[in-house]
Write a structure and sequence with these properties.
The structure is a homodimer of 258-residue chains. Chain A is an alpha+beta fold and 258 residues long. The first copy, chain A, folds into 2 domains: 68 residues, Orthogonal Bundle (Arc Repressor Mutant, subunit A); 164 residues, 2-Layer Sandwich (Beta-Lactamase), CATH 3.30.450.40. In chain A, 43% of the residues lie in helices and 19% in strands. In chain A, the strands form 2 sheets. A 6-stranded antiparallel β-sheet of chain A has the order 6-5-4-9-8-7. A 3-stranded antiparallel β-sheet of chain A has the order 1-3-2. In chain A, a hairpin with a 6-residue loop joins strand 7 and strand 8. Chain A is globular and about 60 Å long. The N terminus of chain A is likely disordered. At the A-B interface, helix 1, helix 3 and helix 4 of A face helix 1, helix 3 and helix 4 of B. Chain B binds a DNA duplex (30 and 30 nucleotides) through helix 1 and helix 3.
Chain lengths: 258, 258
DNA sequence: TCAAATTGTCCAGTATACAGGACAGTCGTC
DNA sequence: GACGACTGTCCTGTATACTGGACAATTTGA
């Protein structure tokens, strides 16, 4: 979908770029890159003029949206970006309620709980609260994970047709961390099952010792707007799993638009 | 401003503004405003042309940095802003460590714990973890509070001279929620005391039933880079307070640059 | 030790993004 | 049901922000 234009656009039609777009490219690159980068390298990566990159990055740094490490000049996201981001949680009622619900759920069940959404076609953990097991099963908040690796992903794709799904899933996303490959037809089947069941359970996808139990949060039009899920050890009894599922479904219906 | 303009230039210097600046203005206004605003009102508030505001807001919305409520068209911060902001916590080592420390401290003491910084001259709660008292004493993360109302504020101003302090504190910030007025000389005295003591305790400032115990986090040059603090009920015994202070000072020295 | 590469800053010309206004549609309110 | 206020979209001319290149200072590394 490329809201952000790929900067690697063939050679030199040399369009002059709006600073808005340049800013969005910078932020997006920084987010994807995952670590600090120096201005020169950034300009090169974005195929942007050095001078423009300098002025923009300096402007954003002055505003506090970015920070430049005084040691080596590498660029990071800044305090102000964090503050602005917090407003999202405060203001967005679903996100806010979901956050509280996840915290409650983790406390009640003692299991790691997560709130997830599709973020421009990428699976994203919006909020997470670790459980209190000795071995903490947890993933980092804000990470973007291939959709097919997760139970939540199967629910979030409910209502999409085959073409949309195929467009959304990159080829390499079907390969699990241990090298196994998910068959696209089985995957689409699983999505359909998840939609009908109103929940989804996957075992041993990301690693061999965990299972993931996810429930949909419905939007006003009956679409799956987000999910809430539990990350569990794989060796629970059927009764335990069933009880957790009931609790989880309670939470999800509380969060869904009626 | 506009000291430079010839006096007869009177109305509407109508500078053309860079979109970077417009974007920063929009974000900052939205942050300060605290709730959604419609595009028209935003343009008016910023004294910006409507058309430019429309295109910019739409660009930012498409990128996911902002969101427009489908009901009434009001603008809010978006998911992507939240994701970008999370990177700050992940990448910035002080913020990251402080967050963990605050969580640990709240768990160990059972009291509400906070991590605070000056953010461009404003006192800001960067992270907070509520304690487990029946009456939860807690303030919202990301809020900006007048510096003189807090114990942390007194520590954060350590090392500033009188002129800097006076420049930083607005007249109305000296008035407490209950109408009492803090004397500027006493305030500067308190800052000096806090600096020498290496911690700060304030009682009954923001409300009558809480006290605030803060400890400094020192940067590499010995400056107070941030604080970590406990929000406590006002009627603790001296022993309890002393024990909490030791625990807090442990945390703060762990976070300080050696 | 001397190139080669990189960093941060500055400048001038021009492609173009912004300001301003027009327009049709939609609310409210009197 | 006529009026004012607002919303969202589109168009045009021009003020200017962006680009490209040049520069000195610094770092790399051979």
């Amino acid at each position: 979908m490329s809201l952000i234009l790929p900067a690697t656009d063939a050679e030199a039609p040399q369009r002059r770029e709006r600073s808005v777009d340049r800013i969005l490219q910078i932020l997006e690159f920084l987010h994807g890159h995952g670590e600090g980068i120096r201005i020169g390298a950034l300009a090169k990566a974005l195929n942007a003029p050095r001078s423009s990159t300098y002025t923009l990055v300096n402007d954003l740094t002055q505003a506090g949206l970015l920070e430049i490490s005084p040691d080596d000049g590498r660029i990071f996201f800044g305090k102000r970006m964090y503050l602005y981001g917090l407003n999202y949680i405060r203001e967005n009622s679903l996100a806010k309620r979901a956050r509280m619900e996840v915290d409650r759920l983790a406390k009640e069940t003692g299991e790691t709980s997560e709130f997830c959404m599709l973020q421009s076609g990428r699976y994203t953990i919006m909020h997470m609260r670790p459980g209190n097991r000795p071995f903490r099963i947890s993933s980092a908040v804000g990470l973007q994970i291939p959709i097919p690796w997760t139970a939540s992903g199967r629910l979030l794709l409910a209502g999409h047709d085959r073409a949309q799904i195929e467009a959304l899933i990159a080829e390499e996303d079907l390969v699990l961390p241990d090298g196994r490959r998910i068959d696209i037809d089985e995957f689409i089947d699983a999505i359909d099952h998840a939609r009908r069941d109103g929940f989804c359970l996957t075992k041993g996808l990301v690693d061999a010792v965990t299972q993931c139990l996810a429930a949909p949060i419905y939007g006003a039009e009956g679409n799956v707007e987000a999910t809430i899920c539990l990350v569990l050890p794989i060796d629970l009894s059927d009764e335990q799993t069933a009880a957790l599922r009931e609790t989880l479904l309670d939470s999800s219906s509380r969060l869904s638009a009626r």
